[in-house]
Amino acid sequence: MIEEVQLLEQLKSDKDKDEAFRALISLYKERLYWHIRSIVKSHDDTDDVLQNTFIKVYKNIHNFKGESKLFSWMYRIATNESITFINKNARRLQTSSEEVQQQAINNLTSDVYFEGTEIQLKLQKAIATLPEKQQLVFNMKYFQDLKYKEISEILETSEGALKASYHIAVKKIEDYLTNN
């Protein structure tokens, strides 16, 4: 597998950029897809946000300073693009971002790409009751099994704050699942 340093050099060179970008997409497409999907819920919306994420990465790779891993930088872009997408939908529908997410969860049962059981749907509803940051932390830790250090780089927050957010999120989800 190509090393990140070598990939970055190729991404920043005019000669190798397109080929390196195809390699970058094949390396990270699936992981970013599931990260975005955990936020926006719908398969079709996820595809749109994923495409926007890769466009931003392509256009802005020369701005990447290497202060974090390339993976973390791309996750941050994907996270921001997902939140922007939800907020744009909320403005367009003249509603709150929470209501947009709730509607997306309600639509999951008719989404042909959602293969979840009733309990998975209930878990998604519980996650949707959390504040945005707790949702992000919970999804990255629980579903994507990211380390606190990686989440810290992506969300630019201390590991201690993330551990507290995750713990609080788990408690709220447990309460929701017990009482609903």
From the structure provided, what is the oligomeric state, counting identical versus distinct chains? Answer: single chain
CATH topology of the largest domain: Rna Polymerase Sigma Factor, Chain: A
- Cα Rg: 17 Å
- For the record, the CATH class of the largest domain is Mainly Alpha
Largest sheet: none
CATH architecture of the largest domain: Orthogonal Bundle
Mean pLDDT: 86
Assess the beta-strand content as a share of residues.
under 5%
User: Can you give the helix content as a percent range?
Assistant: over 70%
**What is the number of independent domains?**
2
What's the N-to-C terminus distance? 46 Å
* Helix/strand order: HHHHHHHHH
CATH superfamily heading of the largest domain = RNA polymerase sigma factor, region 2, helix turn helix motif
* Number of E-state strands: 0
Organism: Tamlana crocina
Family: Belongs to the sigma-70 factor family. ECF subfamily.
Domain RNA polymerase sigma-70 region: 24-92
Protein name: RNA polymerase sigma factor
